[in-house]
Specification:
Radius of gyration: 24 Å
Helix content: 25-40%
Oligomer: single chain
Largest sheet: 5 strands, mixed
Strand order of the largest sheet: 4-3-5-12-6
Order of helices and strands: HHHEEHEHEHEEEEHEHEEEH
Strand content: 15-25%
Length: about 325
């Protein structure tokens, strides 16, 4: 009968792949380097493939087989932890570590509240997070590095399930002395002759470009930046206007200079915000609890305490589709 691989072997392999060296893995696991090396060697023998290339100067490198096996190994370890936690309380506990991804510009608006309030609702769950771009987060989900991710429902890739929490629309950000700052609402066509500061982060860049294009506006982009706060600071300095989704409570930049936020008069397609997860996988109980908590938190009207991150909402449940 073929020898079965063990969870210990999987743990050695995943830790070594993440640490980059056998020594680093041994230090993390509090075992000897020889134990890690032997365990991974036995695992490779049982699988019939080499998972890691050992080089003294370069450390460890994943082979093609190793790259394919790594997310599967992580998933098996996560599932074993879920089973262990479930057996401790006869299947009734959500105890364990939950890693949630979050889109970079959403993180300051969503994560602090969730990190503070979710542990009060589920004290046995240790909540951690990772930040990243849309592509990075979906990669992390497929790799098993996080179970859920908070992101915009744009360009969702195959193999990822997106569940909308709320929808929002952009606003115009203007310098205090801008000619349009005195208006209650701003028509996009009126921005055509003014310089723009573009938040150059996908999917924001494409979304804003499409919003302007739908209004017949080809933006005059004066500056591009990946920094949300640099956009606001440049606008406050009078360098141009911008379109943004998230709205900080203070109408000032980091420098303390005033900006003006104005609703858009045009009918703009809403942008959904929601939770993404890998398809074809069974969510852990702690992931399901977090998803339910998020739905409760963001169920309120836009701008209210329940939906404080949203600027404008509605019943839309579709995923926004942008041209390739």
């Amino acid at each position: 009968m073929p020898e079965r691989m063990s969870l210990r072997q999987l743990d050695y392999f995943v830790t070594a792949a993440e640490a980059g060296t056998m020594t680093g893995a041994a230090q993390r696991l509090y075992v000897s380097q020889s134990a890690v090396s032997a365990g991974i060697g036995e695992l490779e023998h049982q699988l019939g493939v080499q998972l890691l290339i050992r080089a003294k100067a370069k450390g460890l490198t994943l082979t093609t087989a190793g790259r394919l096996f790594l997310p599967e190994a992580r998933a098996l370890l996560a599932r074993s932890e879920e089973l262990r936690a479930g057996m401790r309380e006869v299947g009734q506990t959500t105890a364990g570590r939950l890693v949630v991804g979050c889109f970079t510009t959403l993180a300051p608006f969503l994560l602090p509240r969730l990190l503070e309030e979710f542990p009060a609702a589920c004290p046995d769950v240790t909540l951690d997070f990772l930040e990243g771009s849309l592509n990075e987060l979906q990669h992390l989900l497929r790799e098993g590095r996080c179970e859920l991710a908070l992101l915009y429902g744009v360009d969702i890739e195959p193999g990822i399930v997106f569940d909308r929490l709320y929808s929002t629309v952009p606003h115009v950000l203007l310098p205090r002395e801008h000619p349009l700052a005195g208006r209650e609402v701003v028509r996009l066509a009126d921005l055509a002759d003014h310089d723009m500061i573009m938040l150059d982060v996908p999917p924001s860049r494409r979304y804003f470009s499409e919003v302007l294009a739908d209004a017949g506006v080809s933006p005059v982009v004066r500056h591009r930046t990946e920094s949300f706060e640099l956009v606001r600071s440049l606008v406050a300095r009078g360098a141009g206007y911008s379109l943004l989704i998230q709205r900080p409570v203070p109408d000032v930049s980091y420098e303390g200079r005033a900006v003006r936020m104005r609703p858009i008069a045009d009918d703009v397609a809403p942008l959904p915000v929601g939770l993404a997860r890998p398809s074809g996988t069974l969510p852990t109980r702690r992931a399901a609890a977090f998803a339910s908590f998020c739905r409760a938190v963001f169920a309120g009207p836009p701008g209210a305490e329940g939906g404080g991150a949203a600027e404008a909402g509605g019943p839309q449940g579709h995923v926004a589709k942008l041209p390739a």
